[in-house]
Amino acid sequence: MAYETLKEEIIAYGKSIGIDKIGFAAANEFAEMKSRLKLQQDSGYQSGFEKGTIEERTEPTLHLSDAQSIIAIAVAYPSRMKNPPKNKKGSRRGNFCRASWGLDYHHVLNGKLEQLSTFIASKIAGFESRSMVDTGELSDRAVAERAGIGFSGKNTMIITPEFGSYVYLGEMITNIPFPPDEPVDDGCGDCTKCLDACPTGALVEPGRLNAQNCIAFVTQTKGFLPDKYREIMGNQLYGFDTCQVVCPKNKQVDTHLHPELEPEPDLVKPELLPLLSISNREFKERFGSMAGSWRGKKPIQRNAIIALAHYKETTAIPELIRLMKEDPRPVIRGTAAWAIGKIGTEDGLAAIKQAQTNEQDEQVLHEMEKGLAYYTQVT
Ligand code: SF4
């Protein structure tokens, strides 16, 4: 069978199973990325979540010895939700970023890639493939760029002409020499909106991110957060969308093609206070199917505490005092103490002073001091 014809059949089949865009790329190594990745490593700009060595991240043949082409897929996700719940005093809510709306996209895209692989195998003898979504070694964005899914924006996201940057990406390395597609021309022009809007300067130059300074990454860490991030995070529980929201290429883009990727408003904007006492089991039952739960409940709870402090939510004080005194996790005890000080009530002040006498952990004690200092500043 001519590979051009098969390509058309693959695209048509892909559409029928909810793949919104498919592109084909040659499986040569991503030689131009090697020096960039090395520089990122040497600068300490990586998130630490990357998988594999630089070679594994840039050489498709290390994952499929007879790699000939890579099929890149994109699935569009919504940017707006209907009927978002009200965020009011007394029942403040947090926020999960859009990439955590609906079912975990890793499962959704891996399922589609599996179907696609089965389809191609039914058409061609000896077909071999290896698929990846986000957590694989290859860079989804580099593959998508080469395969003509979209151009790489200054915000480091792939921007498609059809769906903006609101797309999930995945790829399949194959042993079939499919003819490659043309890359999409860079469309950022003179715009610098994402660089200007980034509150931490994490976009250190166009197309270059210091992940350590990116709020999306910061929300996923598990330890004590530096104060500068606590002030910026607002009510963000997981991820951060600013560099996508300000992008003119995303203006008016809001795609609703996949019911499984639609947000459940009460889940992606959950009430903060109940999160502080949620059990592991409840957390798994409620949030386990979302991409944003992959780091477990601790970072979400820490971020919820920071969000309550941001709102100066006085109704949270009794629960924060309980956490400060009783929670076995120093990060939670310490962040709660800091939040109590920031909210600044008489009860809170007395509780921090009393808890100081029993606390052994140096970092928690430091957070208590910060909380007391905050209190003194605001009163
Ligand atoms: Fe490019 Fe402007 Fe979008 Fe940034 S905001 S990715 S510079 S178009």
Automatic annotation (TrEMBL):
It comes from the Bacteria. Pfam families: Fer4_16 (PF13484), HEAT_2 (PF13646), QueG_DUF1730 (PF08331). Coiled coil: none annotated. One of its GO terms (molecular function) is metal ion binding. Gene3D superfamilies: Leucine-rich Repeat Variant. GO terms for biological process: tRNA queuosine(34) biosynthetic process. Keywords: 4Fe-4S, Cytoplasm, Iron, Iron-sulfur, Metal-binding, Oxidoreductase, Queuosine biosynthesis, tRNA processing. InterPro entries: 4Fe4S_Fe-S-bd, 4Fe4S_Fe_S_CS, ARM-like, ARM-type_fold, PBS_lyase_HEAT, QueG, QueG_DUF1730. The keyword Cytoplasm applies. Signal peptide: none annotated. The keyword Thylakoid does not apply. Residues 180-208 form the 4Fe-4S ferredoxin-type domain. This is Epoxyqueuosine reductase.
